[in-house]
Amino acid sequence: MSTPVAIAVATSSRKRTLEGYAGPALLLLLGVALYWRVALDLFNDWWTQPNLSQGLVIVPLALFIAWTQRTRVLKTRSSPATTGLALIAIACFLYVIGKVAAEFFLQRVSLVLVIAGAIWTFWGSARLRTLTFPLVLLAASIPLPAVVYNTAAAPLQLFASDMAANLAQALGVTVYRDGNVINLAYMSLGVEEACSGLNSLSAMLVAGVFLSFLLCRRATSRLSILVLSIPVAIVANIIRITGTAILADYDDKFARGFYHALSGWLIFVIGFAVLYGITKLLSYTERRPAETIPAVA
């Protein structure tokens, strides 16, 4: 039979538990009320715009990484800190600025900051550090502002066009480049914004994150894979444009429709294979035991 003291202790424990969940539950409700439209518009962009569809992969990947690290997170001591409220306040300020200025990027970034601030407030900075990688991935899923995207796309278009034209000439194809247009003997190829390489760069960065997380243990190795994924994506895109120009010089159907789409997938597979080989090499160097230096008598 339970004693009055035991009943009082159990009641007090349940009360503290409910009070502990009250704050996060309230913040969750406020977050849903404030950000449901932002999240819906973001998902719609991922779903309807092919150049932003990597978000459909990045978010599940971030959740998967957070789930695999749950043991490490829960083993880290929880130390709630009110300083996390400052980050939430900054996020709310960015949300208001983005709302007033009709700037979707600021509203979406504020969502990630609110999540980080909530973790900091209710779990502490130590647990927040264990979840830094998934949070960075969530931030990477947010499309860049149009002005930033266009500013980066134009130089990449010209660079890819120039390198592809020079490479095609070196392989014996007669071409003349005018801006982002590669003129062949019987047709012209326009290197549009979609072929600038930004889309393949985003996809290769996601592939690099996934491979580095699965195969590498050191932070330096993971960072190296992310950095190397940039030139791999750029070179793969140049090879794609060059190959399209060479094949189109032989038969123009290879620059249109199914063949054009197939070349994009094929080059991505090749780039992924190269990145996988680099990742395996780095993971091998991590496992290789250090060479011992013989003692000098």
Give the oligomer, counting copies of the same chain as homo and different chains as hetero.
Answer: single chain
Cα distance spanning the termini: 76 Å
Query: How many strands, which pairing sense, and closed or not: the largest β-sheet?
Result: 3 strands, antiparallel
Order of helices and strands: HHHHHHHHEEEHHH
Helix content: over 70%
Shape field: globular
In total, the number of strands is: 3
Low-confidence stretches: 5-20, 290-297
Can you count the helices?
11
Structural class: mainly alpha
Radius of gyration based on Cα positions: 26 Å
% residues in beta strands = under 5%
Mean pLDDT metric:
77
Strand order of the largest sheet: 1-2-3
Structurally, the number of domains stands at 2
What does this entry show, briefly?
It is built from eleven helices and three strands, in the order ααααααααβββααα. The protein is mainly alpha-helical and 297 residues long.
Notes on the structure:
- The chain is mainly α.
- The chain has 2 domains: 4-141, no CATH class; 147-286, no CATH class.
- It is built from 11 helices and 3 strands, in the order ααααααααβββααα.
- The protein has a 3-stranded antiparallel β-sheet with strand order 1-2-3, covered by helices on one side.
- α4 (84-101) runs antiparallel to α5 and α9 packs antiparallel against α10 (219-250).
- It is globular and about 70 Å long.
- The protein starts with a helix and ends in a 10-residue tail after the last helix.
Helix-strand blueprint:
Blueprint: H1 4-48, H2 55-68, H3 70-75, H4 84-101, H5 104-123, H6 125-130, H7 132-140, H8 146-170, E1 176-178, E2 181-183, E3 188-190, H9 198-215, H10 219-250, H11 257-287
